[in-house]
Write a structure and sequence with these properties.
- The chain is an alpha/beta fold and about 325 residues long.
- It folds into 2 domains: about 170 residues, Thiolase/Chalcone synthase (Peroxisomal Thiolase, Chain A, domain 1, 3-Layer(aba) Sandwich), CATH 3.40.47; about 140 residues, Thiolase/Chalcone synthase (Peroxisomal Thiolase, Chain A, domain 1).
- The protein is about 30% helix and about 25% strand.
- It contains 10 helices and 13 strands.
- The strands form 4 sheets. Strands 1-7-6-4-5 form a 5-stranded mixed β-sheet, sandwiched between helices. A 4-stranded mixed β-sheet has the order 8-13-12-11, with helices on both faces. It has a two-stranded antiparallel ribbon with strand order 2-3.
- Strand 4, helix 4 and strand 5 form a beta-alpha-beta unit.
- The radius of gyration is 18 Å and the shape is globular.
- The chain binds oxa(dethia)-CoA.
- Oxa(dethia)-CoA binds next to helix 2, helix 6, helix 7 and strand 12.
- Oxa(dethia)-CoA (UT7) binds next to helix 2, helix 6, helix 7 and strand 12.
Length: about 325
């Protein structure tokens, strides 16, 4: 039994913040941001908009494309670092919003920018085991809530959004393999250093801290290795991949991975310029963009790969 992507969806909040807007807020320039990251603009939630709001819109679009109703879904997994509440999980809130029948399972996954790949890997294993048949897998983030808008090192990088897929049990090949990894020794390079049980009094005033240069170096090396691992596992050559759908953190990291695959940038889905780094939402947002504009077609081989805080990293090889 395989799990196959039956539909994709995404949603971006309407408010847009351009590099020129940021020039008025911190000591930066449009040229620096484009040159060092490839980012031109990012979408940001309104005051009352939440991660679950974004997730709901992306989920409804994916369900519509898949031709599935709430009655069909028996598992909801939301990858997020920015949940609405401490609990219940965003997945449970979403299950209620979508009027998906109670009794199926629903839970969140926290692997920061690799969250969607983790969620996809978990969903795939649930379907392969035969326990579930139709899974809603979502990456949704409101990173703007954990960004320090006075810190030029980080505020220019992140954006909000959501992407979703509906996975269904199928006898036809779909997800061919997933590869999930973590190394907690790198925890201090990228973090928000407060939480519910550590320094809770600082939670509202503690934001993303990143040693950007160190993260960059490990990301490039690690993503190269996971490409090799994924191809070797499936006994495929680099030339067998039709589309690379990478985590959208920095155009320079994406280009380095494409170079490793000897892949023309024409076969790499790049949305970082339009969305910034939307963490767990970035891969499904990029996937849905390229599915809806007709670039990605049924039967093509896709390599999804992500890297993020933890560090966590992972990949999924998919026959679409
Ligand atoms: O998604 C999870 C994983 N995250 C990533 O993969 C992000 C990985 N890291 C990166 O993408 C890059 O390291 C950054 C985009 C964060 C930074 O680019 P960089 O080329 O590594 O720059 P840098 O950190 O070496 O900084 C170069 C200079 C510094 O000035 P000095 O110390 O050389 O005088 C920074 O203070 O650029 C300065 N700088 C800025 N200048 C203008 C940092 N941010 C800005 C800014 N505008 N926004």
């Amino acid at each position: 039994m395989f799990s196959r992507i039956a539909g994709t969806g995404s949603y971006l909040p309407s408010k847009v913040v351009t590099n020129h807007d940021l020039e008025k807020m911190v000591d930066t320039s449009n040229e620096w941001i484009i040159d060092r990251t490839g980012i031109k603009k990012r979408h940001i939630v309104g005051d009352n908009e939440t991660t679950c709001d974004l997730a709901e819109k992306a989920a409804r679009a994916a369900m519509e494309m898949a031709g599935k109703t709430a009655q069909d879904i028996d598992l909801v997994i939301v990858a997020t670092t920015t949940p609405d509440l401490v609990f219940p999980s965003t997945a449970c809130l979403l299950q209620r919003r979508l009027e998906i029948k109670g009794g199926g399972a629903a839970f969140d996954v926290q692997a920061v920018c690799t969250g969607f790949v983790y969620a996809l890997g978990i969903a795939d294993k649930f379907i392969q085991s035969g326990s579930h048949r139709c899974v809603l897998v979502i990456g949704a983030e409101t990173m703007s809530r954990i960004v320090d808008w006075t810190d030029r090192n980080t505020c220019v990088l992140f954006g909000d959004g959501a992407g979703a897929v509906v996975l269904e049990a199928s006898e036809e090949a779909g997800i061919l393999s997933t590869h999930l990894h973590a190394d907690g020794h790198y925890a201090d390079l990228l973090k928000v250093d407060a939480g519910i049980s550590k320094q809770p009094e600082l939670l509202a005033s503690t934001f993303i801290e990143m040693r950007g240069n160190d993260v960059f170096r490990v990301a490039v090396k690690t993503l190269g290795r996971i490409v090799d691992e994924t191809l070797a596992h499936n006994q495929l050559e680099k030339s067998d991949i039709n589309w690379l759908v990478p985590h959208q953190a920095n155009i320079r990291i994406i280009k380095a991975t494409a170079k490793k695959l000897k892949m023309s940038m024409d076969h790499v889905v790049v949305t970082v310029g339009e969305h910034g780094n939307t963490s767990g939402a970035s891969i499904p947002l990029a996937l849905d963009t390229a599915v809806r504009d007709g670039r990605i077609k049924r039967g093509e081989i896709l390599l999804l790969e992500g890297f993020g805080g933890g560090f966590t990293w992972g990949s999924a090889l998919i026959k679409f």
